[in-house]
């Protein structure tokens, strides 16, 4: 087996100012370095506590007593693969495909890696934005994060950019590339300017692009409103499309892998002629477009996935308001021009 090579489409994945080395193997799978035992309090308490009563005095805006679901990201992905719960089956469609783990040989030994599907597979000019979600990144065992503001926009917006790369849809030139060290200093105005650049407003496909992003963000939002199992700390949303596909004329819109959502852009209408809305949370995948529709016109593939699950806590029967706050602000930004109704 040939050695994996550095993944050239990586925009996030930085730790203490150093970019982690995400790799790609000859089969086209992504190898993400795994931080083992990422949750210091895992296993110290009841691993699956019962939800607190809604009248309990202990119900406060605090997560000190919440327990980690797993010791690291690998265990969480493994949990999703085997779980039959409605919430987990739906969540599985909102995250990258998981192919297990692998040891990668380095100079001083081996390093464990997650093996995930490549969300930019087949893209010629992948435009990518990595958005970290939440007003706080605190999780039990990391008290220093409780009141720490790591990014300038996290408290106000509930999200922050941690990486951005945009290619121009006409000439293929790199428009902008923001690394996490620069992202930390971005103001709210600068974050919105970066997202505007990501939307390629001078393209005839800009509105269609934003419709696709909003529709998939609404599916994630729908999941968060229904589930009461998890609170996700330090999680991110990754949005990708191929600038080379931004063109003129009628377009078919789809996700990179056919899930969780595929819709044909036609004045904001879905494949059935209705306005795209998040589907009920069931174990069934969301509907995909008819393959015949993919043959007419130009195809624009837009992918929105939740990533980074090293720090997932049991929610104790509560909604994940920390994540939801940022997600709703993100939806408002992308939806301001397309106005998709729920």
Q: Please, could you describe this protein's structure?
A:
The chain is of the alpha+beta class. Helix content is 21%, strand content 24%. The protein has 7 helices and 16 strands. A hairpin with a 2-residue loop joins strand 6 (98-106) and strand 7. Helix 6 packs antiparallel against helix 7 (321-335). Residues 49-61 and 255-296 have low confidence and may be disordered.
Short structural description:
The protein has 342 residues and is an alpha+beta fold.
Q: Any idea what the radius of gyration is?
A: 20 Å
In order across it, which strands form the biggest sheet? 10-9-8-12-15-13-14
Indicate the multimeric state: single chain
- Helical amount: 10-25%
Q: Span between N and C termini?
A: 49 Å
- Let me know the largest β-sheet: 7 strands, mixed
Give the overall pLDDT as a whole number: 79
Number of strand elements: 16
Structural class: alpha+beta
EC number: 2.7.-.-
Catalytic activity: 1D-myo-inositol 1,4,5-trisphosphate + 2 ATP = 1D-myo-inositol 1,3,4,5,6-pentakisphosphate + 2 ADP + 2 H(+); 1D-myo-inositol 1,3,4,6-tetrakisphosphate + ATP = 1D-myo-inositol 1,3,4,5,6-pentakisphosphate + ADP + H(+)
Keywords: ATP-binding, Kinase, Nucleotide-binding, Transferase
Family: Belongs to the inositol phosphokinase (IPK) family.
Summarize the helices and strands and which ones pair or pack.
Blueprint lengths: L4 E2 L7 E2 L2 E2 L3 E2 L5 E4 L39 H10 L3 H7 L5 E9 L2 E8 L9 E8 L20 H4 L1 E9 L6 E5 L1 H4 L4 H11 L7 H21 L3 E4 L2 E7 L8 E4 L8 E3 L32 E10 L3 E4 L6 H15 L7
Parallel strand pairs: 13-15
Antiparallel strand pairs: 1-4, 2-3, 4-5, 5-7, 6-7, 8-9, 8-12, 9-10, 11-16, 12-15, 13-14
Helix pairs in contact: 6-7
């Amino acid at each position: 087996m040939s050695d994996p090579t550095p993944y050239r489409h990586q925009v996030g994945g930085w730790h203490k100012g150093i970019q982690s080395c995400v790799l790609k193997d000859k089969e086209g799978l992504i190898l993400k370095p795994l931080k083992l035992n990422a949750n210091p309090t895992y296993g110290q308490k009841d691993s699956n506590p019962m939800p607190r009563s809604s009248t309990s005095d202990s119900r406060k805006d605090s997560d000190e007593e919440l327990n980690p679901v797993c010791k690291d990201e690998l265990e969480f992905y493994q949990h999703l693969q085997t779980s039959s719960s409605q919430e987990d089956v739906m969540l599985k469609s909102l995250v990258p495909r998981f192919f297990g783990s692998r040891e990668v040989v380095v100079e001083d030994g081996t390093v464990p890696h997650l093996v995930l599907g490549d969300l930019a597979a087949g893209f010629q000019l992948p435009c990518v934005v990595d958005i970290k979600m939440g007003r706080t990144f605190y999780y039990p065992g990391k008290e220093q994060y409780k009141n720490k503001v790591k990014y300038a926009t996290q408290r106000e917006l509930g999200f922050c950019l941690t990486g951005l790369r945009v290619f121009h849809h006409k000439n293929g030139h790199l428009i902008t590339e923001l690394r996490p060290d620069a992202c930390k200093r971005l103001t709210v105005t600068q974050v919105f300017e970066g997202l505007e650049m990501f939307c390629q407003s001078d393209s005839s496909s800009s509105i269609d692009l934003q419709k696709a992003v909003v529709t998939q963000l609404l599916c994630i939002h729908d999941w968060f409103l229904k589930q009461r199992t998890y609170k996700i700390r330090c999680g991110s949303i990754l949005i990708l499309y191929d600038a080379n596909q931004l063109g003129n004329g009628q377009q078919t819109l789809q996700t990179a892998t056919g899930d969780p959502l595929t819709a044909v852009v036609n004045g904001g209408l879905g494949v059935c002629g209705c306005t795209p809305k998040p589907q009920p949370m069931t174990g069934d995948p969301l509907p995909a477009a008819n393959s015949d529709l993919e043959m007419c016109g130009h195809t624009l593939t837009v992918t929105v996935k939740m990533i980074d699950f090293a720090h997932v806590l049991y929610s104790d029967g509560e909604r994940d308001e920390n994540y939801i706050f940022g997600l709703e602000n993100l939806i408002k930004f992308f939806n301001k021009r397309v106005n998709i109704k729920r």
